[in-house]
Amino acid sequence: MTSERSHILPAVQAILDRTANAEGMCGILVIRLQGIREAQLRFGFEFGSQIMLAARERIVEAVRHVDKIFVAGDDTFVAVLPAIRNRTHALLAATRIVGAFDSPLLRGERPWHGRAVIGVTLYSEHGTTAELLYRRAELAHDEALRVGEPFAVYQQDVTPIEILYGELREDIEANRLHVAFQPLCDLRTGEVVRVESLARWNTRSGVEVAPGDFVPFAERSDLIVQLTRWSLNASLRHTAALHRGGCPLDVAINLSPRVFVEQGFAEHMLGALEIWGVPPESAIIEITETALLTDLDMSVRVLRRLRDHGVRVAIDDFGTGYASFAYLRHFPATELKIDRTFVDAMIGDRRTELLVQAMIDVAHRLGLEAVAEGVENEETLRRLVEMDCDLVQGYHVGRPVLAETFVAERIAAASTV
After folding, report:
1. Residue of 255, 245, 227, 72 whose CA lies nearest to 163
2. Would you call 103 helix, strand, or coil by DSSP?
C-alpha cells in the first residue's frame, strides 16, 4: 500500500494545487470493496486482479469524465473529484459509486457481488494537502464501516478509537475478552428462551472498546477469524453451563462471513458443539444479509452443511440490505431478525408499521420465525404481540449482562422453583 500511495499522493496534490486557483471545492474519496480478500483466497489473486479491473470500470462509469480514479491497493480506490460546488455533489458521487455495485461483476462465467464502503473528505474544509485528506478519508471510511453505512464524511470533532493490532490479538489469544448475553423472549409464552452472545473488550489499560469499533477493525485485518473462533467457544462454554444447571436456553452467535472461506469451518463448529455438549438445535448462527453479498455461494454451502446437522440460521438486520427477497430464495435461513431501525420507528409511523407486519408475514409464509430487535417500550411490545411476531429482544426485554452473571442468576432462579 505504501508504494501505491507514493505514486498517488503527488498526482492528487497536483490536482489540489490546480483546484486552489479555481472556483469550487475538490472531493477525495477512499473507496474500499468488501469481499475482495475472500475472492482472492477462494479463486486466486488473478481473479482478484480481474475483479479490480472490472470494478474500476464501474466506478469510472459512475462519475464524471473529469474525475480521476486511482488504484490504491488490492481492494482500494481513490477518487478525486475536482471543481465540485459543495459537499452534496461529493455525496451524490459516493451514492452513484455504491449503486454501481448493486449488480454483480462478471469475469468469465464467475460473478462476484461485493459492496463499496466510502470515506469522503473535502478540500479545503478538511485539509489542503493530499496526505492529510487521504488520511482523513480513511478515518471517514472506518466510521462508515463502524456505523454500517455505505459512506461517511470526515468529522473534525470525532476522535477515533485507537485500536492496536497486537493488543487485540494478544487479548483474544489470552482469552481476555468477555461474553455478554442478551435475552430474547417468546411472545407466546412470555418466557426467555434464548440469548444472543455479544463480545465485550476492556483493554489492559482499562479502556472499554465498543464492539462497533473492534469488530470492524478485526474485519479489516486477519483477526476476524480468531475473534470468531474465540466467540464461538466462549459462547458455547457459557451455554453448556446453562444446560448443566437446568436452564437449556438456545444461544445465537454472530458470525463473520470471512470465516466461511476457512477450510473446514463447519466441521470446526460442529466439533465445538460436541466438545461443549451443546445440542446443534440449541445453536443459532446470525449473519447479516449485506454480508451475504460477499460470497453467497460459499455462505450457502457452509450454512447448509450446518443446517443438515440441526444448527439454525438467522438473517440479522433484515430489511437493511440490498437484495433481501432475491437472497431468501436460496439462503437456508430458519428465522428473520427485523432490524431495530424499523421496530423503533413503527409506533407513530403507519408505513413503517406496515413494513414490519409485512416482514413478519413473509417470514411466516416461508416457514421462518420472526424476531424483532430493539424493543424499547411496552407499547412496541404489545403491538408486536398483535402482529404475531415470534420473538423479541431489546432493553425493554433485557439488557446485555456478562455471561458469568447471567448464568449464575438463571441457575439460582431455577433452583428456587
Report:
1. 227
2. coil
Sequence spans of domains, the chain: 2-153, 175-416
Give pTM, 2 decimals. 0.69
Is there a contact between 181 and 192 (Cβ–Cβ < 8 Å)?
A: no
Closest listed residue to residue 292, CA positions, set 329, 338, 267: 329
Query: Could you list the pLDDT tens digit for every one of the 417 residues in the chain?
Result: 444 667 899 999 999 988 766 667 899 999 999 888 777 777 888 888 888 999 999 999 999 999 999 999 889 999 999 988 888 899 999 999 999 998 888 766 677 878 899 999 999 889 889 999 999 999 899 888 877 789 999 987 655 567 888 899 999 999 999 999 999 999 999 999 999 999 999 998 888 888 888 888 888 777 888 999 999 999 999 999 999 999 999 999 998 877 887 788 999 999 999 999 999 999 999 987 655 555 667 778 888 999 999 999 998 877 765 445 666 777 789 999 998 889 988 998 899 999 999 999 999 999 999 999 999 999 999 999 999 999 999 999 999 999 999 999 999 988 876
Query: How far apart are the C-alpha atoms of 99 and 108, rounded to whole Å?
Result: 22
Instruction: Residue 172: name the closest of 229, 101, 108 by CA.
Output: 229
CATH topology of domain 2-153: Alpha-Beta Plaits (3.30.70)
Q: Is there a contact between 10 and 68 (Cβ–Cβ < 8 Å)?
A: no
Q: Is 175 exposed, middle or buried (0-12, 13-18, 19+ CB in 10 A)?
A: exposed
Residue-wise DSSP of 37-51: HHHHHHH-HHHHHHH
DSSP β-ladder status, 105-107 and 208-209? unpaired
HSE (CB half, 13 Å, CA atoms) of 161?
A: 20
**Contact yes or no for 194/250 (Cβ under 8 A):** yes
Classify strands 369-372 and 335-338 as parallel, antiparallel or unpaired: parallel
Cβ contact 200:177 at 8 Å? yes
In one-letter notation, the amino acid at residue 389 is C
Q: Identify any residues that bridge with 123 across adjacent strands, giving them in sequence order.
A: 26
Alpha carbons 228 and 62: distance in angstroms, whole number: 36
Distance separating alpha carbons of residues 180 and 201, to the nearest angstrom? 10
Per the structure block, which three cell numbers stand in for 176? 481476555
Q: Look at domain 175-416 and name its CATH class.
A: alpha beta
Partners of residue 29 on adjacent β-strands = 79, 120
- Is the peptide bond between 124 and the residue preceding it cis, with omega within 30 degrees of 0? yes
